[in-house]
Write a structure and sequence with these properties.
- The protein is α/β, with parallel strands linked by helices and about 425 residues long.
- It folds into 3 domains: about 120 residues, Methylthiotransferase, N-terminal domain (Rossmann fold); about 230 residues, Alpha-Beta Horseshoe (pyruvate-formate lyase- activating enzyme); about 55 residues, Nucleic acid-binding proteins (OB fold (Dihydrolipoamide Acetyltransferase, E2P), Beta Barrel), CATH 2.40.50.
- The protein is built from 13 helices and 19 strands.
- It has a 6-stranded parallel beta sheet, with helices on both faces. The chain has a 5-stranded mixed beta barrel with strand order 15-16-17-19-18.
- Strand 15 and strand 16 form a beta hairpin.
- It is globular, with a radius of gyration of 22 Å.
- It binds S-adenosyl-L-homocysteine, iron/sulfur cluster and FE3-S4 cluster.
- The site of S-adenosyl-L-homocysteine has 17 residues, from strand 13.
- It is an enzyme of class 2 (transferase).
- Pfam families: Radical_SAM, TRAM, UPF0004.
- It catalyses: N(6)-dimethylallyladenosine(37) in tRNA + (sulfur carrier)-SH + AH2 + 2 S-adenosyl-L-methionine = 2-methylsulfanyl-N(6)-dimethylallyladenosine(37) in tRNA + (sulfur carrier)-H + 5'-deoxyadenosine + L-methionine + A + S-adenosyl-L-homocysteine + 2 H(+).
């Protein structure tokens, strides 16, 4: 039996798909090359914005063709989309050729669900999650160099635009001993980089019986032999403590990069977003980070067109982007999400205005990213070499400690090692260079 997984959305989903693959392979499934030779397709979905959902529906429609040609072809859907009741209802009524809807918390039951749906001809739903978080599931790592390790699940922040707390549930922290054991095993298996995952890693530990916080976790992971680099995503500005800044500064394995979503440069909009910080507080945090870690790279997420965003609010965002000089930014058009408070707000912004604001924001950020990348030309950077470059088979590819993508000329033996790379050229999305050791 062969399987194929399509993954949408954030790193959390990318990691969840590694678990889905691990569970299926343990049950004897093998990965397939093409859809034609596939028995089970799993869609691991995202609903953060409307276009994420649109992509999934497009894929489901394509799969109908395969189902018609092969009745044993199984379509299973998991991820954030199916945690929304209106989506479940829609799929059940309008897309009956879908076989299974399952909560990722039930991933260990997937092989059984596949068996079951072959016996009964209706959608098999396993959507109510186990309350227990599954530990010790098999994980099929997509890389042998860097690994994703979830430290919290869910989110308690209820930013007014965001669907995540509704679909991922309340924030739960994994036990520190489970995380540390997993990282130790990964180090023994040869992984060099650990990426700690959570919707808000800074609030790690809040629900644990024995106090244990995120800076402490970083310090403990920093001691694990074999790990060369530690990264984490995502940090919420409201929970970024002085202790965390100090831990980042003092732990030599923690990379000089933070992804710190600001969302807006207008304190008025930040309040309506329920973000619990002001523009001034954000700037102060960035200054603390830059003082403690002089070459730190700072990246962010920004939403344009949140309900009620005036031209003046938007100019505040542009001004903040100029002030901070982010290394790069993911920029999004606000998308109404069913069930969130912002979807009910008056003053929804016109699509044309949203698009025009996005364009202006992207132009500004691109020019900053380009200039910052250009400053690195002539320097030598430590790159963790991940493999051959996707765009140019003649080159290798990897990232600097500051998380910048570098495509460079060097011997293949460098793959899986740290290399010193001299930067010779810069673009908006990557740096070009040559190995010097
Ligand atoms: N937990 C993380 C990431 C959440 S999703 C955090 O708090 O930063 C990633 C990004 O998607 C968010 O940072 C936000 O910029 C964007 N996003 C979330 N909901 C959105 C919506 N309804 N419309 C547009 N962008 C959205
Ligand atoms: Fe969504 Fe806010 Fe939670 Fe991030 S912190 S997942 S933006 S609710
Ligand atoms: Fe999308 Fe769910 Fe991640 S909505 S962004 S896959 S948490």
């Amino acid at each position: 039996m062969k399987y194929k997984i399509f993954t949408y959305g954030c790193q959390m989903n990318i990691h969840d798909s590694e678990v889905i693959a691990g569970v299926l392979e343990k049950a004897g499934y093998e990965p397939s090359e093409t859809l034609k030779d596939t028995d089970v397709v799993v869609l691991n979905t995202c609903c953060i914005r409307e276009n994420a959902e649109r992509k999934v529906y497009g894929r489901i429609a394509q799969l109908k063709y395969f189902k018609q040609r092969n009745p044993n072809f199984t379509i299973a859907i998991s991820g954030c989309m199916v945690q929304q009741p209106h989506v479940v209802e829609y799929i059940s009524k309008k897309l009956p050729y879908v076989d299974i809807l399952f909560s990722i918390k039930n991933v260990n039951k997937l092989p059984e669900l596949i068996e079951e749906c072959r016996r009964i001809d209706s959608i098999t739903a396993a959507l109510a999650g186990n309350s227990d978080l599954a530990e010790n599931l098999e994980v099929k790592h997509t890389s042998s160099i860097k690994a994703w390790v979830p430290i919290t699940y869910g989110c308690n922040n209820y930013c007014t635009y965001c669907v995540v707390p509704y679909v991922r549930g309340r924030e739960v922290s994994r036990l520190p001993e489970d995380i540390l054991r997993e990282v130790k095993t990964l180090a023994d298996e040869g992984f060099m980089e650990i990426n700690l995952l959570g919707q808000n890693v800074n609030s790690y530990g809040k629900n644990l019986d024995k106090p244990f916080d995120f800076p402490e976790l970083l310090r403990k992971i920093n001691e694990i032999e074999g790990i060369e680099r530690i990264r984490f995503i995502t940090s919420h500005p409201k929970d970024l403590s002085d202790e965390l800044v100090l831990a980042m500064k003092e732990c030599e394995k923690v990379c000089e990069h933070i992804h710190l979503p600001v969302q807006s440069g207008s304190s008025r909009i930040l309040k309506k977003m329920n973000r619990h910080y002001s523009r001034e507080h954000y700037i102060e945090l960035v200054n603390k980070l830059k003082d403690a870690i002089p070459n730190i790279s700072i990246t962010t997420d920004i939403i344009v067109g949140f309900p009620g965003e005036t031209e003046e609010d938007f100019l505040d965002t542009l001004d903040l982007v100029k002030t901070i000089e982010f290394d790069s930014a993911f920029t999004f058009i606000y998308s109404k999400r069913i069930g969130t408070p912002a979807a009910q707000m008056e003053d929804q912004i016109d699509d044309e205005i949203k698009k025009e604001r996005l364009k202006r924001l992207m132009e500004l950020q691109d020019s900053i990213t380009k200039r910052k990348n250009n400053e690195l030309v002539g320097t030598v950077q430590e790159v963790l070499v991940e493999g051959e470059s996707k765009n140019d088979a003649q080159k290798l590819s990897g990232r600097t400690r500051t998380n910048k993508l570098v495509n460079f000329v060097g011997p293949k033996e460098l793959i899986g090692h740290l290399a010193d790379v001299k930067i010779t050229e810069s673009h908006t999305w990557c740096l070009i260079g040559e190995a010097v050791n």
